[in-house]
Structure formats: structure tokens, C-alpha cells
Amino acid sequence: MQCCPRPQLRPPQRPRRSGIRLSNTSVAAATCTNAIAAGAAGEAIDVTEMRSYLDVARATLGLAAIQYSAPTLNPGSTIVRAVDIQELRSGVK
Fold it and tell me: Is the pTM above the cut of 0.85?
């Protein structure tokens, strides 16, 4: 009596993320006005710069633009809120 051949067992394959590279496109390297450290207070200019770089990257990838809750941040007068940072974080997911 002959047994059925055993299937080859392979380790599960992880889905591969597509290697999206923005460096080969028209997106320039990001430079910031201020050095940003963890735990430090953010300034409106920093958030504005990050928003502009994120907007360009998303447009390059064909993703929809983010509708910010406070579209304009004025350096020196606008206080950066937690929602401003959360919107940036959500935009890169």
C-alpha cells in the first residue's frame, strides 16, 4: 500500500511591501528650520514644514490630500496642538 506524498512544508511568507522610493522622483530631501527633539515643544514653523513635505510625498504617490483641522499655522501666534501632530502621524500610515 502506497501512501500519499507529503506536501512540502514551507515557512509562511510575509506579504512584501512595495518598495516605494521617493528619492528617484521630484521630491527633494526634507530639511527643517529647527532641530526637533523628542519631548521638546514643537513650533508652528516645524509643523508647517512637515505638512508641506508630507503633502508633496502624498501627491507623488497619488494619495489624497489631508484636510487639516487648522489649515494655517502662524509662527509666533499659533499654538501647536496634539491634533496637529496626530494628523501628520495619520498621514504617513
Answer: no
> Given phi > 0 = left and psi -120 to 50 = alpha, else beta, which region is 39?
left
Return the C-alpha cell found at 59: 501627491
- In one-letter notation, the amino acid at residue 8 is Q
Long-range CB contact pairs, 23-31, < 8 A, 24+: 25/60, 26/60, 27/53, 27/56, 27/57, 27/60
Interval 3-33: pLDDT, tens: 666 656 666 665 555 555 555 555 566 667 7
C-alpha cell at 34: 529647527
